[in-house]
Write a structure and sequence with these properties.
Helix content is 42%, strand content 18%. It folds into two domains: 140 residues, no CATH class; 117 residues, Aspartate Aminotransferase, domain 1, CATH 3.90.1150. The chain contains eight helices and nine strands. α1 packs parallel to α6, α6 runs parallel beside α8 and α7 packs across α8. A hairpin with a 5-residue loop joins β2 and β3.
Amino acid sequence: MTRLTSALSWVALTLLSTLVLPAQPDNELPLDPAITYGKLENGLTYYIRENQEPKNRANFRLVVNADSVALDPHKWLYSPIEAGCTLVKNPQDLPDTFAFHPDYYQFDLEGDQPPTNYYELGLQNTRGFRALKVWLAFKQVGGPAFVEMIRQDIQLAQAMKEAISQEKELEALTCHLSITTFRYVPKDLEHTKDEQLSYLNELNEKLLNQLQEEGEVFVSNAVLQGTYALRACIVNFRTTLNEIEKLPGIVIRIGQELDAKMRV
């Protein structure tokens, strides 16, 4: 489990540029001109790898202030459902929160290297070996491959935003990491601002349902300050630029069909 946590942390460092380490003397820190080191108030050491993913660095620099970071390997580490993970700054916070010792729990906690009892680290006493599938994936492809797959997902999301922005009937709304949001807007829509918002929200909700029913592409939805949006989240290493480039045409075709029916 320790090796798996280290692997997850390594991916976080390489992609997101920041990692928090246990407190350690300055003279024991590895020398690397590409890494900036610092100390938190509680004595923990953090470092930032300045030469990694500069476009995404600003989004995650403040992660050093977090006490914990939650991530789902069954999403962006491509693991089968379900596998969740929490990386904590202070490991002692987990047993301090969850550990309990009723009379019928007889575990040897003494010795130079007492065993790790996972019931002290979470809500469950009896639990499945969720970490196994994540560990096997790391053993199979390695940390650098995960970094590259995640990087490609981010690039595909950006390519999707660019492709959507080139279409007059699509409006790109946001693009963050591997998520792009947008909506279908008919070219000849003539309503007041409030009427347009209401109509477009209804149209795009119907469009989402139709897209999911027909199955050519799969998108979900988001509501951004009252605007109903289509939400494309790329978390599959099999997704290619070819699928990204096909999506705008599919959305426009079905959007036009629904718009024509709704105006009758």
